[in-house]
């Protein structure tokens, strides 16, 4: 799937944007973009939106973190932005 083409195939749900991969499976756009730039996401890791905006899938806003780190980020230990 070409990076330019997936935006036209985006489907909204749960405040995340989804796209279809080459096999037709629905995947989060943030995961798709991360993997296009950095390769496969390791098992047990998640993609975190640094600014907290779930549909802001610019690569500079994405961070690959362990589930534990992700939980800590959302509990406020390492939060770098304020929720409104």
For this entry, give a set of tags.
84 residues; three-stranded antiparallel sheet; 3 helices
Q: Report the count of strand segments.
A: 5
Arrangement of strands in the largest sheet = 1-2-3
Distance between the termini: 35 Å
Rg over C-alpha atoms, rounded to the nearest angstrom:
13 Å
Structural class assignment: alpha+beta
The topology string of helices and strands comes to: HEEEHEEH
Count of DSSP-assigned helices:
3
Low-confidence stretches: 1-8
Estimate what percentage of residues fall within beta strands.
Answer: 25-35%
The major β-sheet equals: 3 strands, antiparallel
What integer is the average pLDDT?
A: 80
| Helix fraction bin | 25-40%
The backbone outline, from C-alpha atoms, is: globular
Number of domains: 1
Model description:
The protein has 84 residues and is of the alpha+beta class. It has one domain (3-74). The chain is 26% helix and 25% strand. It has 3 helices and 5 strands, in the order αβββαββα. The chain has helices spanning 3-6, 29-38, 67-74; strands at 11-13, 16-20, 26-28, 45-49, 62-66. A hairpin with a 2-residue loop joins β1 and β2 (16-20). The chain is globular. The N and C termini lie far apart (35 Å). Residues 1-8 have low confidence and may be disordered.
Break the fold down into its secondary structure elements and pairings.
Elements: H1 3-6, E1 11-13, E2 16-20, E3 26-28, H2 29-38, E4 45-49, E5 62-66, H3 67-74
Summarize the structure.
The chain is α+β, with helices and mostly antiparallel strands and 84 residues long.
